[in-house]
Write a structure and sequence with these properties.
Length: 202
C-alpha cells in the first residue's frame, strides 16, 4: 500500500520524471498555456505553484528593499534551467500574480486522446486567461440583465392585476350619485312649489 506517498511516477525513472516536469514547467512559464495529459498537468501544477510563490515573494522584497533577490533566483534556477524562463518568472509573472494567495494555475479537461485513449487537459496560468475571464463576466452581465427583465415583467403583471380591481371598485360607487342628485333636485322643486302658493286668510 502506498500510504503517504504523494505524487505520480508517470511510468518514468526519477531523473526522467524530473526532466519531464522541468520541461513542462518551463513551457508553461513561456507559453502561459500548454496541453498535456491530465496526470502530467496535475503533477506540473504541484511543481510550478511553489515556484511562482517564491518568485512572487522575491518580487515583493525587491520592490520594498530595492535590491535583487539572487538567492531565490538561484534556487529556482536549480530546477528551471532556462535563463529566459527564470527572467520572465521573476519579472512579468510575479508582477502579474500580485497578491493572489495561491491557485495560480487551472487544469481543464479536454477529453480522451485518439489512439491510446489518454485523458487530455490544458493547464494554464489564471491571470493570463483574459478571454475566459471576459467570457465569464459577459455571462454574469447577461444573467443580471435577464433577471432585471424578469423582475420588471413580474412588476408590470402585478400592476395589471391590481388595476381592474380598482376600476371595478370605482364603477360600483359611481351609479349611486345620479339618483342622489335627482332626489335632491326633486326635493328642491317641491320646496319651491310650496313657497310659491300664497296663504289665504279665513
Amino acid at each position: 500500500m502506498r500510504h503517504l506517498k504523494a505524487g505520480r511516477k508517470l511510468n518514468r525513472t526519477a531523473s526522467h520524471r524530473r526532466a519531464l516536469l522541468a520541461a513542462l514547467s518551463t513551457a508553461l512559464i513561456k507559453q502561459k498555456r500548454i496541453i498535456t495529459t491530465t496526470a502530467k498537468a496535475k503533477e506540473t501544477r504541484r511543481i510550478i505553484e511553489p515556484i511562482i510563490t517564491r518568485a512572487r515573494n522575491a518580487f515583493k522584497r525587491e520592490k520594498s528593499q530595492q535590491q535583487t533577490d539572487i538567492h531565490s533566483r538561484r534556487i529556482v534556477a536549480r530546477f528551471i534551467r532556462d535563463k529566459e524562463a527564470v527572467k520572465i518568472l521573476f519579472s512579468e509573472i510575479a508582477q502579474k500574480v500580485g497578491d493572489r494567495p495561491g491557485g495560480y494555475t487551472r487544469v481543464l479537461p479536454l477529453g480522451c486522446r485518439k489512439g491510446d485513449g489518454a485523458e487530455m487537459s490544458v493547464i494554464e496560468l489564471v491571470d493570463y486567461n483574459v478571454a475566459q475571464d471576459e467570457k465569464t463576466r459577459k455571462k454574469r452581465a447577461e444573467g443580471s440583465k435577464k433577471a432585471e427583465e424578469r423582475r420588471k415583467g413580474a412588476k408590470a403583471a402585478r400592476q395589471k392585476e391590481t388595476a381592474p380591481a380598482k376600476d371595478s371598485a370605482v364603477g360600483s360607487e359611481a351609479p349611486a350619485s345620479p339618483t342622489n342628485a335627482g332626489e335632491t333636485e326633486n326635493a328642491g322643486e317641491s320646496d319651491t312649489g310650496r313657497e310659491a302658493v300664497p296663504e289665504t286668510e279665513p
